[in-house]
UniProtKB/TrEMBL annotation:
This is Methyltransferase domain-containing protein. The keyword Methyltransferase applies. One of its GO terms (biological process) is oligosaccharide biosynthetic process. It comes from Pseudonocardia broussonetiae. One of its GO terms (molecular function) is hydrolase activity, acting on carbon-nitrogen (but not peptide) bonds, in linear amides. It holds the Pfam family NodS. Keywords: Methyltransferase, Transferase, Zinc. The keyword Zinc applies.
């Protein structure tokens, strides 16, 4: 029985208002694109690949299989010939996109039997040092695509931002499918030149878009191809679930200068501190805590507004730096990680939690919010501030992180500051 296909028009309302994929942010960075079969990358993310390449990103392509099982009835000789054809088609498609020099890693794994664990082991060395990876969506209804998505999630370093592109989702799933992760979606819109280049690239895969052996129907027929000619490509951010490992921050503070975010000198950090201090509703506080204090740049200024300030950080190097920064202020700095009570002691009338909550796994974040509610006395204030970008190591972005506290009835919002760089809220403990 032929599977009913979802028309492109059904998806169109869901594409309205999607945030744009930030191509410029990856200029000069290494971006690895993973495909289960030759043509996946072109159909699902060809325009985005081209845009990244033209913006100066160092794009590499990894193709897990040669797609030799596209027509299951073929014998071994015919399958080998199809594999060779599809390799040539991929080279022609890259040329059509102006990416003939892009490195291609062909893994030659079995088509239609892709093993996520085996693929993950092969991908691990290829993903080292990549700023971002684009891979098939792990929820895609094609099993090889799903396996490729799972493999990338397992193999990618925590420092690599993961993006997924759907393919067979478009024709095979319904637009109201609850499993499609729209909150994590970003759109890339192709201009006229990019659309023409993508059409030429897609046309290179004649073995898939034209009649099959003995007149078999195309694998990717006109009704399916229509989904990839809308002028819009969609990718889903695939966030880490487990949160940033503690060792990651030890590694960062071990870099030259011991200030991985330039907290003492950058205009972003200096401005954020000034805004945060200006947003405090009270001139002076009795007892404050600042977990994840980092180098202590904010701690030193905050100490002047507090009778007692307990600062802490999970990274030993940060604790040493912060202790030096607050010398003579009366503030104390200890080593402690959220949600430990040592990081948020009882009896607070102010808690300042900046640039750390989005790194926490969901269960740790929930426990931390509970600890904040326990440590801050009724009527006390809580300040949360986070960069509006999305660190690779973070399970969620600033907006999603702040919503956890904003939706908690134990807190009432007093101050909201939103600009292009950071999000800041002052909450009062109810």
């Amino acid at each position: 029985m032929t599977r009913p296909l979802t028309p492109p028009a059904d998806w169109r309302p869901l594409l309205t208002g999607l945030g744009a994929f930030d191509v410029a942010a990856l200029a000069g960075e290494r971006v690895v694109v993973v495909a289960a079969h030759p043509d996946d990358e072109t159909l699902g993310a060809g325009g985005l690949m081209r845009a990244l390449h033209r913006a100066g990103a160092c794009v590499e392509l990894v193709v897990a299989t040669d797609g030799e099982a596209a027509f299951p009835a073929l014998d071994g000789t015919a399958r080998a010939a199809l594999a060779a054809t599809r390799r040539d088609e991929l080279d022609a498609a890259l040329d059509a996109h102006g990416m003939a020099g892009v490195p291609v890693h062909r893994l030659g794994m079995p088509d239609s039997a892709l093993d996520a664990d085996v693929l993950a082991a092969a991908l691990a060395p290829l993903l080292l040092g990549a700023e971002a990876v684009l891979a098939p969506w792990s929820g895609d209804p094609h099993p090889d695509h799903a396996a490729a998505g799972r493999a990338v999630a397992a193999a990618a370093p925590v420092t690599t931002t993961r993006w997924n592109y759907p393919i067979w989702m478009w024709p095979w799933l319904r637009a109201d499918d609850p499993d499609v992760p729209w909150p994590f979606a970003r759109a890339h819109h192709l201009d006229a030149d990019a659309r023409d280049a993508k059409r030429r690239a897609v046309a290179c895969f004649a073995s898939q878009t034209g009649p099959g052996p003995d007149g078999a129907a195309p694998v990717v027929g006109p009704e399916v191809l229509a989904h990839f000619d809308t002028g819009t490509e969609v990718v889903f951010r695939d966030p880490v679930a487990e949160g940033a490992p503690a060792g990651r921050f030890d590694d960062l503070y071990a870099t030259d200068g011991g200030d991985p975010w330039d907290t003492r000198t950058s205009f972003y950090e200096r401005r954020k501190r000034a805004v945060l201090l200006a947003c405090l509703p009270r001139e002076h506080y009795r007892h404050a805590a600042e977990p994840a204090c980092g180098t202590g740049a904010l701690t030193r200024e905050l100490a002047a507004r507090c009778d007692r300030l307990d600062a802490s950080d999970a990274a030993a190097a940060a604790v040493d730096l912060a202790r030096t920064a607050v010398e003579g202020t009366g503030a104390t700095v200890e080593r402690a990680a959220l949600p430990d009570a040592a990081a948020l002691p009882a009896g607070l009338d102010l808690a300042v939690v900046s640039e750390v909550l989005y790194y926490l796994a969901d269960d740790v974040l929930a426990a931390t919010v509970d600890r904040i509610a326990e440590a801050v006395e009724p009527g006390g204030d809580v300040v949360i501030a986070h960069w509006r970008g999305w660190p690779a190591e973070a399970p969620r972005d600033a907006a999603a992180t702040h919503r956890v506290l904003l939706d908690d009835p134990r807190f009432t919002a007093l101050v909201t500051h939103v600009d292009e760089e950071f999000l800041l809220h002052v909450l009062r403990r109810a």
